[in-house]
Structures are given as structure tokens and as C-alpha cells.
# Entry
Amino acid sequence: MRRDVYQGIADPTRRAIIALLALQAMTPNAMAEHFNISRQGVSNHIKILTECELVKQEHQGREIYYTLEIKKLKEIDKWLEQYRAIWESQFNKLDKVLSNLKKQKK
Amino acid sequence: MRRDVYQGIADPTRRAIIALLALQAMTPNAMAEHFNISRQGVSNHIKILTECELVKQEHQGREIYYTLEIKKLKEIDKWLEQYRAIWESQFNKLDKVLSNLKKQKK
DNA sequence: TATATGCGCAAACAATCACTTGCGCAAATT
DNA sequence: AATTTGCGCAAGTGATTGTTTGCGCATATA
# Structure
């Protein structure tokens, strides 16, 4: 069983949960109200998110508030970094082509 | 069958393929040499990457060169954007705490 | 103390996954 | 013309997924 950030964000419902938790900490029941799946379905996703360390829990009485571990998302950002350089240089190339076309028009 | 970028990058072998193709276009056979799985195993991944539009093909005789569609990775970057704002503000808060501690020491 | 509520665990399900092996087609080499 | 090479397609395998329903344990309310 693979448990990493990439796996964590692979499912659309999990990305929706992440979006919710970015706004505020929430209990599983509160999250479930936003989706068409059962409370337990949501809990299963939370379990995976917890295992990926994308989410942490805060017990409060019998309720459990889940919070987003935003720094885990930084991992993806770091992975993207190596490719950002490439697409930026590609954009610059395109930019050059365009400005050359402009010059030719003149 | 879900076919989006997030699914595309969910598998470690596929991320490795992406890394290879970032350096240069390659045939499936060439890629397979880098991994411990069969040529067909690699081809299965390529198929998924193609369906996610993370990869495009260029036929050249009987060989097929695959190239990385870097702009598709930008989609992830765009998704991350909303969270970047959050972790940056969190970092600034931490920064404040640290500089306050420093002041107190003085 | 009895009952209701919030939650995780466990088991079950079909669907999808990552792989493999075997095949056949088309391009290249002999 | 015969053989080799590069590739995708198809079918098969066991493992993992997303989901559900039923359970039991705590905490809260009556």
C-alpha cells in the first residue's frame, strides 16, 4: 500500500476535502454533508489523508476536528520545481518567436 | 476510469517516466531499460500518461518517440496556487514569532 | 441510568490497478 | 523473400481502490 502525497491528492473527493479543510478545521460529519457519499465513505478518505500526513486530528470531546497539514502540499510544489524551470524557458522561447513576428510586421 | 493529471502522477514509475522525458524524448524500449519492469509494463504506463495528456507521441519509422507535455504539469501548479498563499502566510507568522523571540533575548 | 450521537474498525463488494505473457502488424535488415 | 525489431492490443493475475452496511466504544444528553 503506497501512502504518499501523490496518492493522497489522486482522488477528487480527497481534493475536495483538502479544499474544505483549507478554510477551516472540520469533523467528519461536517465534511460528509458536502458530499454524496456516506459519513463512513468520508472517514475512509480521511484515513488515507491521515496516513499521507496531509491531515492531523484534534480531539475535542467526542468530536474529532481534522486540520490540513499544508506543509505536506509543499512537497508537491518542490517536485514541480524542476519542471517549472522547463515550462518557463519554453514560454520564453515562445515569447521570442512572438516578438520576432512583431518586428517582421513593422 | 479516472484520467486526469493527478491520476497520472500518482504512480512512482510514471513520475520516473516523466522525469526521463523531461530530459529527452524517448521510445518505450529506451524507457524500459531504466526500470525493472517489462517493456509492456512501461507501455501500459505510457498509455495512461497519454490518456492524461501528459505525453504525446511522434512517429519516426517504426519507432515512437514520446515527449512530455510540460504544460499539463502547470495544471497542478495552478491547483497548488490557492494553497501556496496559505503556507506563505503561515511562514510569515512563524517568521514573526521567531523575530519576536530574538527581540526578547536582547 | 438510559438513550442518543460522533466516531473508528471490520467485512463485503465491484471496479480499477500494476503487472505479466502471448500475439500480430508494420518497418528495417539480411 | 525471410528474419528481426519496435510497438500496441488482448487477456489473465493478484493487489488495491472507493464505497457501503453493520458493529461497538466512548462522550454527551435526558
User: Anything to note?
Assistant: The longest helix of chain B spans residues 70-105. The mean pLDDT of chain B is 91. Chain B touches chain A at residues 2, 6-7, 9-10, 12, 15, 19, 22, 70-71, 73-74, 76-77, 79-80, 82-84, 86-87, 90 (CB under 8 Å).
